[in-house]
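tokens incoming
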């Protein structure tokens, strides 16, 4: 697991590609990181696949998402808090 909290930038990144490549299920790690976010922080997830089941779960908790496939096995999914 790689977590990078950019000081002052309000962005928390989590890279679960190593876990996915080794056959581990990173859902708990993802949710623990997400649940630790401050209300205004953006969550950036790096995965080997587009995490289709995860997206509506986090959107239902008040976030908008964008997905970008940067290579065959590298997806970047960004979750930004919705504006009120």
């Amino acid at each position: 697991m790689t977590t990078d909290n950019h000081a002052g930038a309000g962005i928390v990144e989590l890279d679960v590609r190593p876990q996915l490549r080794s056959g581990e299920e990173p859902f708990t790690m993802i949710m623990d990181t997400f649940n630790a976010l401050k209300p205004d922080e953006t969550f950036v997830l790096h995965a080997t696949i587009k995490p289709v089941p995860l997206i509506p779960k986090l959107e239902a908790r008040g976030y908008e998402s964008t997905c970008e496939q940067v290579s065959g096995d590298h997806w970047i999914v960004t979750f930004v808090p919705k504006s009120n």
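note: The first helix runs from residue 17 to 21.
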